[in-house]
Design a protein that fits this description.
mainly alpha; MetI-like fold; 2 domains; 0% strand; globular
């Protein structure tokens, strides 16, 4: 009897996994429809002569340029350098944002002391930081990493504070009744309860890290996708500019997909509404 129940449970689990995999594949295929339509319209309008191919190269020409760049090996270097800069800047900015955000969210005194200054700094455009970072840190990697970290910091910081401030007061009271220390309240209640907001901040911060990358690589860079954008502009090669933009979009989507996967795994305990057909 026990073997029968075990076999039934295993079959149900396998069927559930297969159904979940089917939903994911269908979702990805559905998401590819709009880009495919855009590519076909893009190719068609250029072939029909409605748009000058020199101004907006068609996808077929971009594909040829992409293959050429990969064969030369330069494009791999640009992608690797930019990805390392984004990852390092993102981890520094997000890490500091989590630490400071937790402190601000838990203390009105700390919030009153530092939050007004951070809100003012948040309004400064990314390019406004460039000359100052050049004066302070030179033209090597530190100013580039710092600028990306600034871009990643503020979305994570704001969402951490919002998540902590919206933690259910009853959960905190239960923790205090059980004698949890301040540290355990943070690790056992505040951080887990604010994870949805935290992941929203991390995803937004990562997307801004990719955006700030282009500004960062204007700082005397000789490698990276931002440099490729500049090189394409200066040499009048719209195909290089378009390739850099497309690769930035693809890398941003891949990295965001990784965070989405981590978010789903970390928030399996959340009983939330799911859209119909999901």
């Amino acid at each position: 009897m026990g073997h029968k129940h075990t076999g039934t449970f295993a079959a149900e689990k396998q069927a559930h996994s297969a159904k979940a995999l089917y939903r994911q594949v269908a979702q990805h295929l559905t998401g590819a429809i709009l880009p495919l339509i855009c590519l076909l319209l893009w190719q068609g309008t250029v072939d029909a002569g409605w748009i000058n191919a020199h101004v907006l190269p068609p996808p077929s020409e971009l594909y040829e340029t992409l293959i050429e760049q990969f064969q030369h090996g330069a494009l791999w270097q640009h992608i690797l350098v930019s990805s390392l800069r984004v990852l390092l800047g993102f981890f520094i900015g997000a890490g500091l944002a989590i630490l400071i955000g937790v402190a601000v969210g838990l203390s009105r005194q700390i919030e009153a002391f530092i939050d007004p200054s951070f809100q003012a700094l948040r309004a400064i455009p990314s390019l406004a930081w460039v000359p100052l970072l050049l004066l302070w840190l030179g033209i090597d990697e530190p100013p580039k990493i710092t600028l990306i970290a600034i871009g990643a910091f503020f979305p994570v910081y704001l969402n951490v504070i919002s998540g902590i401030k919206h933690v259910d007061r009853k959960l905190v009271e239960v923790g205090e009744i059980y004698g949890l220390t301040r540290y355990r309240l943070v690790t056992r209640i505040f951080i887990p309860a604010s994870l949805p907001s935290l992941f929203t901040g991390l995803r937004t911060g990562l997307s801004l890290a990719w955006m700030f990358l282009v500004a960062a690589e204007l700082i005397a860079a000789t490698k990276g996708l931002g440099y490729l954008l500049t090189d394409g502009r200066e040499t009048g090669r719209a195909d290089l500019v378009m390739i850099a933009i497309i690769i930035l979009a693809v890398l941003g989507k891949i990295s965001d997909g990784g965070l989405q996967w981590l978010e789903r795994r970390s928030l399996q305990w959340c009983d939330v509404y799911k859209a119909e057909g999901g």
